[in-house]
Design brief:
This protein has 2 domains: 216 residues, Spore Coat Polysaccharide Biosynthesis Protein SpsA, Chain A (Alpha-Beta Complex), CATH 3.90.550; 112 residues, UDP N-Acetylglucosamine Acyltransferase, domain 1, CATH 2.160.10.10. The strands form 6 sheets. Strands 14, 15, 17, 18, 20, 22, 24, 25, 27 and 28 form a 10-stranded mixed beta sheet that branches. The chain is α/β, with parallel strands linked by helices. It is elongated and about 65 Å long. Helix content is 16%, strand content 31%. The model has no long low-confidence stretch (mean pLDDT 89).
Length: 354
C-alpha cells in the first residue's frame, strides 16, 4: 500500500513558527513532526510515500532517503487544497491509497484500517477519533455497522449526536479520486466527502484507538511536546538520547551537559538536544524540551515549555507554558509566561516580563 501525506498548508494558526518552516517540519521533541508519521508507516510495512507539497516545498527534500523509505513528490502551484492535492497525485497511485494529513500525531493501525475498508467494500474510508468536546470539530456520524450517515461541521451542543470526528487519515480507491476535478481547488472535508455521500457512494468510518492530536495551534504544538515527554503519547524519542543518571528525569543528546545542582521537580521528563548546556542551580518542572545548541543560564527556571535550537536563556530567567523559537536571546531574569510564543530570532531584554 502506498501512502500520501498532505503537506501543502501554510499553517497560519501556528505562526510565527510557520513563517519560516512548514508545519510538518517543525521540531517536536528534537525531530520533525512528519518523522513520527514516517516512523509509524515504516513500522507497519509502508515504505512507499508520496509527499503532496506546495508551501516551501523544497525544504521537504531534506527527507529523501529517510530510513530507507521510497519518497516521491507531487507539487501544487498554486495550492489546490486537500482534495486538489490528492487529485494531482493520481498518476502515482495504482491501488488503494492511504492518505494522511501532515499536521497530526496519531497511532493509526494501517493494517486494521485497511481490513475494515476491504470488509465494508467501501469506496472511501475515514479514520475517526473520539473527542471530549465535539463542538470544536466536524462530526462524522455513523450507523452501527460503521457506514457514514452524515457530516456536521462544528455543531452546537444541542446538535451533537456523537463524539466521533475526522482523524485526518483516509483510504481512497482510485475511482473516488477520479471524482475530484483535476487542476481545481477542492477540499476533501467540505466538498468531496459530502458530495460523495449525496451521490450514494459507500463511505466507511473506522474508529482509531490511542493517541491523537491536531498540531494546528501554538497551544496544541506545545501540548504535543509535553505529551511525548510525559509518556502519554506512546511515541518514542530519538534513540540518541541517554539518561543523565539512573532514575533521573533528564535525557541528554550527544554532547549535552548539566551544571551542578540542577534539579527536576514533579512528573515528566526533560530532553536536552545535542550540545546544549545547562548552568548550575537551574530548575526544571514538569516536561521540558530544549533543542540543540542551546544554553540555559545559571539559576534559570523552565516549566512545561519548549525551547527550539540555538536559543540562549539568561541567568535567573523564568519560562512557563510557552514556546520559544530558534536562535532567541532571553536576558537575565526575563519572564515569559503561559501561552506566549516567541518567533525565531526574538530578543527579550533582561528583567522584561511577557
Amino acid at each position: 500500500m502506498k501512502a500520501l501525506i498532505l503537506l501543502g498548508g501554510r499553517g497560519t494558526r501556528l505562526r510565527p513558527f510557520t513563517d519560516s518552516t512548514p508545519k510538518p517540519l517543525l521540531p517536536v521533541v528534537h525531530q520533525p513532526l512528519i518523522a513520527y508519521q514516517l516512523d509509524l508507516l515504516r513500522s507497519q510495512g509502508v515504505k512507499d510515500v508520496v509527499f503532496c507539497t506546495s508551501y516551501k516545498a523544497s525544504l521537504f527534500k531534506s527527507l529523501l532517503g529517510y530510513k530507507g523509505m521510497r519518497l516521491s513528490f507531487s507539487h501544487e502551484s498554486p495550492p489546490l487544497g486537500t482534495g486538489g492535492a490528492v487529485r494531482k497525485a493520481l498518476p502515482l497511485i495504482q491501488d488503494t491509497a492511504l492518505v494522511l494529513n501532515g499536521d497530526l500525531l496519531h497511532a493509526v493501525d494501517a493494517a486494521a484500517f485497511l481490513k475494515s475498508h476491504k470488509r465494508s467494500k467501501a469506496d472511501l474510508s475515514i479514520a475517526l477519533t473520539r473527542v471530549k468536546d465535539p463542538t470544536q470539530y466536524g462530526l462524522v456520524e455513523t450507523d452501527p455497522s460503521g457506514r457514514i450517515r452524515r457530516f456536521l461541521e462544528k455543531p452546537s451542543w444541542d446538535e451533537v449526536t456523537c463524539n466521533t470526528v475526522n482523524a485526518g487519515a483516509y483510504l481512497f480507491e482510485p475511482s473516488v479520486i477520479h471524482r475530484i476535478p483535476p487542476g481545481a481547488p477542492c477540499s476533501l472535508e467540505r466538498e468531496l466527502f459530502p458530495r460523495l455521500l449525496e451521490e450514494k457512494f459507500l463511505l466507511n468510518g473506522f474508529v482509531i484507538r490511542g493517541y491523537w492530536i491536531d498540531i494546528g495551534t501554538v497551544d496544541k504544538y506545545l501540548q504535543a511536546h509535553l505529551d511525548i515527554l510525559a509518556g502519554a503519547a506512546g511515541l518514542h524519542l530519538n534513540g540518541a538520547f541517554r539518561p543523565a543518571r539512573p532514575g533521573r528525569a533528564f535525557l541528554l543528546g550527544p554532547g549535552a551537559s548539566l551544571g551542578r545542582d540542577v534539579i527536576h521537580e514533579g512528573r515528566g521528563r526533560v530532553a536536552l538536544g545535542r550540545g546544549t548546556t545547562v548552568g548550575p542551580f537551574a530548575r526544571f518542572r514538569g516536561s521540558v524540551s530544549v533543542g540543540e545548541g542551546c544554553a540555559i543560564g545559571r539559576g534559570a527556571v523552565l516549566e512545561d515549555c519548549a525551547v527550539l535550537g540555538g536559543t540562549r536563556v539568561g541567568e535567573g530567567a523564568r519560562l512557563q507554558g510557552c514556546v520559544i523559537g530558534r536562535r532567541c536571546r532571553l536576558g537575565a531574569h526575563a519572564v515569559v509566561g503561559p501561552g506566549r510564543a516567541l518567533g525565531d530570532g526574538s530578543s527579550v531584554q533582561r528583567f522584561s516580563q511577557l
